[in-house]
Amino acid sequence: MDSVKQSAALCLLRLYKASPDLVPMGEWTARVVHLLNDQHMGVVTAAVSLITCLCKKNPDDFKTCISLAVSRLSRIVSSASTDLQDYTYYFVPAPWLSVKLLRLLQCYPPPEDAAVKGRLVECLETVLNKAQEPPKSKKVQHSNAKNAILFETISLIIHYDSEPNLLVRACNQLGQFLQHRETNLRYLALESMCTLASSEFSHEAVKTHIDTVINALKTERDVSVRQRAADLLYAMCDRSNAKQIVSEMLRYLETADYAIREEIVLKVAILAEKYAVDYSWYVDTILNLIRIAGDYVSEEVWYRVLQIVTNRDDVQGYAAKTVFEALQAPACHENMVKVGGYILGEFGNLIAGDPRSSPPVQFSLLHSKFHLCSVATRALLLSTYIKFINLFPETKATIQGVLRAGSQLRNADVELQQRAVEYLTLSSVASTDVLATVLEEMPPFPERESSILAKLKRKKGPGAGSALDDGRREPSSHDINGGVEPTPSTVSTPSPSADLLGLRAAPPPAAPPAPSGAGNLLVDVFSDGPAAQTSLGPTPEEAFLSELEPPAPESPMALLADPAPAADPGPEDIGPPIPEADELLNKFVCRNNGVLFENQLLQIGVKSEFRQNLGRMYLFYGNKTSVQFQNFSPTVVHPGDLQTHILSAWLSPLAPALPLQRAQLAVQTKRVASQVDGGAQVQQVLNIECLRDFLTPPLLSVRFRYGGAPQSLTLKLPVTINKFFQPTEMAAQDFFQRWKQLSLPQQEAQKIFKANHPMDAEVTKAKLLGFGSALLDNVDPNPENFVGAGIIQTKALQVGCLLRLEPNAQAQMYRLTLRTSKEPVSRHLCELLAQQF
């Protein structure tokens, strides 16, 4: 009978894979799940394979399998090899079933039942403990089976991203494999640590292995292992180690395999810009890139350095001097000539006072490269020459002689010929004032989407590993690129399986558009945290706020905006939110980045940042199938009675809006492509403004056709009132004075509740910081309590907020008290925060 059940489960699995619609669910679900309790291990193994496949399409129908899977896994992990003799493989009990059970658990979030979750944590700890034990056999089969369970356990720990101790232990275990004699283990360890580097709990632990990873980059024989080492260095990079990592990657670039040189160049360019302490270091790094691997420096890279130099007055002189020195090398790459031609044409006057870089010397140096360059570079140099006539009148006769030469006026290339004729005529007939007006210095570039990240994403492909994203926070650090640097507590590490969006550890495919400004450069779209003011440009607040200002209706930008769509669905046209919408929303209350939704077809990732009453959100839609999505249409809509409370400027600031006095939240959205290729992703940008306090989030409706069948789902957009929380520092005396002022019954909300998660002080602190409040030290007489303060920023008013969280470890209980100047805000914030503990 056991063999019949086993064969039936495997046959049903085969049928389901061939024709999913033929397999009825409903009454079969309980019977299939019940097979996990079977005494025959073969039946259980077949059942796990079947349930893993079925639950990807109907996860809610099979939720009951979690407790049974944990129970079965616990029995296997805690058993001795003699207990399961028929299913023990080289002293490892039931390794295949253990791996399948761990993969099944990765299809679901952490168990809600505290007992089940505690039992699962014990299992995971047992696996990690067994990994430290001496091997019971020297056979390779023993180590393979043991390591298979270990790596699947680490994948589950990463997937949950909720157990700091387990994450750190997993990182330490992987660190031991970095120097293992087996190449495959070193590769897998590097790959898993790339994902761990994105977790707020294990990032610091990953950084402790930086020397070992650098050594692997230098000494590994296998190119794939070296590539994973480069990915891990990219993932673990932050402001504290950026110079070291960039330096090592530049050094490695000189001997790197040709197949990965372009990828290394892109990563170095991204890190140098993101973590530059000053722009002189950034300029040096990019010029070194061109010198070392000029053939692999794409246009996106050197375009970007020109844009940054043009937009920053404080680095222009240094850039001109540095590029002038670089051009003096006997062998100079053409990309260096392009960069040098542009920078000297714009800012050569800043170094013209030095006799060694006088105007004639600059011109002679550039013109000596002219005949060696392609047509595109020659055209750029001709533009530099006419700029020189305006900057340095003493070079006019020499340059006119070059432009008048027959090789230019009768050039076979139309572009070069036209430039030579027009520039010669302009320099001859125009007055000095006219020439100065026409050839004046380029204004700062309007911030465009940075295509370096998109190019790196394309280079890695749709199935890219976790090293392409870096959504970590760094507290108390400045971001000279106009963005905000991440801080712990807001980063989510999604499932390691099928991460099309690269949300586990790094940047989006493209940076969002932002306005011009000398100090407003690349926006770090993954930032969520506070940034300190620096002397390198405007404060992060100024940069951020200026970015989110919508163009005025009369401006050219507004006139060029896309017209509003005619048929976007309204609240009455969409279905209700999916059952787990509230659970998914709660995941983002104390964090800004992560996977909002994922099923077998679609993955939706979120990266967002908020400052004062403004926010920007990036939604990434990933097609996990090989079939193109048709009529893809994600739309932000307003649930029920909230329709009158939300102002939505669809696609354009010119779109009609509701009366402002009734509006609470302004959302500007941008339309995305209607087709999403298999394995590809698209990005949608949302600009958000909080006008008044609000209680209900907007809805995100996603509609598309897959294989001819219409698909739709509705989620709650992770925009809650605490996102507009600005932390406020205050002394103990001020805190208690303000606490007494907010003493009216309607101003206070209090909740006493049982802890749903282990009561860890560091985790609690991280969640409170992620919630948005400032934590005040030495205020509460009880050092175990947490006290915070902040202000909810809206356009119409500011709502002060004070909070006190009192944990009782013995009773496993919390008491949370919030006082604000508005009753609905107190109650709503109290409910939001209580759900996090």
Describe the structure.
The model is unreliable at 462-567 and 640-661 (pLDDT under 50). The radius of gyration is 30 Å and the shape is globular. Helix content is 44%, strand content 14%. With 837 residues, it is α+β, with helices and mostly antiparallel strands. It starts with a helix and ends with a helix. The protein is built from 31 helices and 17 strands. Strands 3-4-5-9-8-7 form a six-stranded mixed β-sheet.
Structural key phrases:
837 residues, alpha+beta, six-stranded mixed beta sheet, 17 strands, 44% helix
Shape: globular
Strand content: 5-15%
* Total beta strands: 17
Q: Helicity level, as a percent range?
A: 40-55%
Q: Could you describe the largest sheet, including whether it forms a barrel?
A: 6 strands, mixed
| Average pLDDT score | 79
Strand order of the main beta sheet, please? 3-4-5-9-8-7
State the distance separating the first and last CA atoms. Answer: 47 Å
How many helix segments? 31
Low-confidence spans: pLDDT under 50, at least 5 residues? 462-567, 640-661
- Computed CA radius of gyration, to the nearest angstrom: 30 Å
User: Which structural class fits the helix and strand makeup?
Assistant: alpha+beta
